[in-house]
Write the structure tokens for this entry.
Amino acid sequence: MEGILAQTIVSGLLIGFLYALIAVGLTMIFGVMDIVNFAHGDYLMVAMYFSFWLFFLFGFDPLFSLPIVTILLFGLGVITYYLIIRPIINAPMLSQIFVTFGLLIFLRGLAQFLWKVDYRMIPQTLSSGNIEAFGIYFGKPQIIAAAGAVICNGVILWFLKKTRLGMALEAVAEDKEAARLMGIDSDRMYALAWGIGIASVGIAGVLLSSFYYVFPEVGANFGLIAFVVVALGGFGSIPGAFIAGIIVGLVEVLSGFLIAPSLKFMFVLAIYLAVVFVRPQGLLGHK
Amino acid sequence: MKNKLPVIAFLLFFCCLIFFPLVFKTPFPRHVLIMVFLYATMGIGWNIIGGYAGQVSFGNAAFFGVGAYSSAILLVHFGISPWVGMLVGVLLSALLAVIVGYPCFRLQGHYFAIATIAVGEIVMVAFLNWNFAGAAVGIYLPILEQSLKNFEFHTSKLPYYYIIVCIFLFALAVCYFMEKSRWGYYFRAIKNDPDGACSLGINIRKYKLYAFILSAVITSICGTFYAQYILYIHPSSTMDLMMSIQICIIVLIGGLGKLFGPVLGAIIFVPLTELTRVYLGSQGQGMDFIIYALIIMVIAIMRPQGLWGVFSREARGTR
Amino acid sequence: MNELLIVQNITKRFGGLQANNNISFVVNKGEIIGLIGPNGAGKTTLFNCIACFYNVDEGKIFFKGSDISQSTPQRNCQLGIGRTFQIVRVFKDMTVLENIMIGAFLRNKHPRDAKRKAMDIAAIFGFAHKLQLKASSLTIAEQKRLEVARAVATDPELLLLDETMAGLNVQEVKESVELVLKLKERGITLILVEHVMEGIMSIADRVIVLDDGEKIAEGSPRDVINNDKVIQAYFGDKYHAKRREFTTSIQ
């Protein structure tokens, strides 16, 4: 029993790191420009399909596709910004919500149209297999994904806090007007935020594709989890997203293990609601 | 003179409602018409909370599901008339609206929208796991003798059409009187500026709750109708997030906070959905979504107030 | 009983910052009180505490004898305290008439009555010919006036006006002053927060000066402008040089 529990906790932690990576792009875009990208989970789906097709057509291992997909998704994020986000920056919130919702439906519809609703999976990758330690089994792809997520989160945080460009981005998030006076072009910073935000979810998608099915709706659940993580951690807070990701991962696997697997998602959402009602700004968010 | 035009327009519209089925005699166009009014009614329900009061709810399908399941469960397990079931559904939906709304209305903007997604999903997962309610398989309603009392008709879709038109007119009337009353003004004030509204003595949370209850009640009635019309319900056909989204889209296309916005939205949106489904079939799966998505994005970017204004005086700038 | 509002030793903190520190004063029925002070003095915080947009950390506020220190904005308004905002918060998508009606609905449940009352008030505030215009199409000065009209429609006994004169030209300031006097004639007690002193000095019965979260002076406008602390607060160490200029500009 303890063994299984320990196993469960470890797998919760591993998936939690990945959730944090999925959420970090969402929280960053929100933090910089106050727009919630409802289509965030669907970029994850796009990245997973890219990874799948690169494997299926060219035999690229996901680890090898990683840089390619990251660059593709960065570009996709920037294009999305210039094409549909820029026109609605100052629009009422309802329009903003509907535009990114439209994007969600568009990406999902496109995936259904192009690739049908089949579940697809990359069969065998370089990272397949298990490792055993202390009587606990770790799936290698999960470990690689979790490690990748931690590294990637670290890099993003380092980028924001230590590089000139990152600090400029933070400045825009803090105060658009002041940043403008300092000579920072907020338009380009927004594009950059979208690029990085979408690229980071792309990395998560590739890492996920080595051990999870790809299908057009795959973004739905992960997207919803990303919202929960972001709102739980506090909109715009990157460390908040990291902690919340781990909490969500743990709640998910533990409620699945202790209560019922089919209800685990319900518990994640219930925890989210409970936290938000007590602290509307999330764990680490400020008003 | 100025006030006669809308009256005439409405009478014309009303005549069309009655005579439509005489023009469209085959089942498919009638089915499309029924779906148009079903969605228009749900749109009116959503418009009250989303369009007038400005609180984007992505969980309205939960009320639809509660309506559908209340009457279906009562009929299947207890043999209670769906008409009574409809009332029970209304009460339960109103209760759900209060339970959900009371804490959720502390949240603003995006936080509220995401919380409603969470609530909608929780309700759906609960039904997926509730064996008494048929779990994921859903409920087949018993085939009864056709009559108004049993709310079942098998030889023709015509009675269903007239029932949904009545429900639609009821919802339209509710919305009309709401719009003209103090509530309507307060809802719009809250949407425009919540701080300004509470500085004028408006208890925002209370009025948001009123809007949510009205919205829930109308949506729930639609749910019961749907269950009796299709005679088979399951969680993903009655309370999926996609359904909540479709309801919002209809209002957005037609016009947020406009009485006839949802009607216009449904007239455009529903036939499009049904036709793509028929003509593209499984081949074009996803094509209907791509089309909606493009419509939504174009409207939200180019004309966020919806298409309704195109036909009204307001658009010509006299206001 | 002549005291309408009693503010007793209130303190309001934001994190470590003490925005209001131990402030007390009394407002009598029918008075016009000016609340002034340099930027960041805590005027708006104090104002928001009285309007219950913030709840005070310490101290009490009494309105007509009842404690409102932990009340809510809407209850405050129902009790008879109206307010405007520093950055205008009119209902932009609604017409001028509808904006005023929202206020009038507080005491008149029926739309017909609310409409009649709103038309009366609109006439007083010079909106008779602009009833059907969208609030967003008005000028800023008009929007500020609309906010006052809207608040007056709730039948307040005490009206809090937050920088209604800021950013207005000379003519508009003059109109604003006349408006305030008109409100006084209707029996409304007023508290005016102003950063600019010119407009307020001619009409205020008493002036309360805040600096750095504390009340540093209180009295008639004439007494206050000669108060050393006030001049110090406004002009710091350069006050000797500026003093004459300052007094003449006000008189």
Summary: The radius of gyration of chain B is 19 Å. Residues 27-240 of chain B form one domain.
